[in-house]
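TA notes, week 10

Several of you asked for a full example with nothing omitted. So below is the full record: structure tokens for the whole chain, then the designed sequence directly under it. When grading your own attempts, check the secondary structure regions first.
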């Protein structure tokens, strides 16, 4: 994507200016909050299919995220193939059995009790799509030489946030799943060197009897997360 002889600064007028009135802005922030506060991390999926084009559009949205030096150090692998989903489930459950058998440590396992998770991960097979998010520690110029990426975890985190918001906006639910370690993913998916799996998003429609942990509805009040100097 990048070439060594295309690195000069070339400003263009700001495209897509929003220019909202104060009133419209008040309405817009309230409406967006109302959409986002209805997002829930869901573990119970229906097997109702989701069109590939929907996933593609959501990933296109993720790709608009800001990133260190605009290097866009991310890659997404969208999997609907049952055999690959099964393989990922089997490998993830193997790791999780160790974690829940004590490998996670007492404090961590205690912290997860109100979330109700365990080593059984049927959603990795039931959800119609798994999106594996990869972080790229370096990129390649057209001539095959490497360039370093910057603020990689921050950039990939922001892009993943955009992706989760886009999926929610599409009426879908997602589960951010982080089996640890995830070393099996890059070779299993044939990813290039320098890419590190960050998380797996299980994506689809919620099951008819889907539940969420009650604690998930408890969000810190604004006063606890915002300090204002005015
Ligand atoms: N990866 C495990 C454990 C887990 C860890 C955290 I932090 C969570 O918020 C939820 C689960 C699992 O997926 O079960």
């Amino acid at each position: 994507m990048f070439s060594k002889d295309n690195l000069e600064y070339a400003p263009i007028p700001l495209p897509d200016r929003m220019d909202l009135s104060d009133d419209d802005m008040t309405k817009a922030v309230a409406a967006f909050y109302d959409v986002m506060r209805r997002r829930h991390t869901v573990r119970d999926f229906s097997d109702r299919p989701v069109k590939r084009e929907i996933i593609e559009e959501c990933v296109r949205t993720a790709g608009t995220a800001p990133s260190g030096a605009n290097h866009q150090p991310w890659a997404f692998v969208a999997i609907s193939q049952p055999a690959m989903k099964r393989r990922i489930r089997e490998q993830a459950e193997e790791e999780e059995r160790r974690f829940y058998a004590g490998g996670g440590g007492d404090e961590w396992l205690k912290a997860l009790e109100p979330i109700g998770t365990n080593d059984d991960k049927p959603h990795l097979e039931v959800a119609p799509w798994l999106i594996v998010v990869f972080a790229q520690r370096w990129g390649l110029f057209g001539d095959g030489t490497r360039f370093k990426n910057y603020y990689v975890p921050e950039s990939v985190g922001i892009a993943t946030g955009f992706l989760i918001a886009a999926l929610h906006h599409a009426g879908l639910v997602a589960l951010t799943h982080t089996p640890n370690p995830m070393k099996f993913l890059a070779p299993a998916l044939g990813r290039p060197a320098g890419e590190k799996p960050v998380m797996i998003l299980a994506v689809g429609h919620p099951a008819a009897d889907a539940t969420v942990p009650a604690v998930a509805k408890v969000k810190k009040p604004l006063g606890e997360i915002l300090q204002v100097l005015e």
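The chain is about 35% helix and 15% strand. Use that as a sanity check on your answer.
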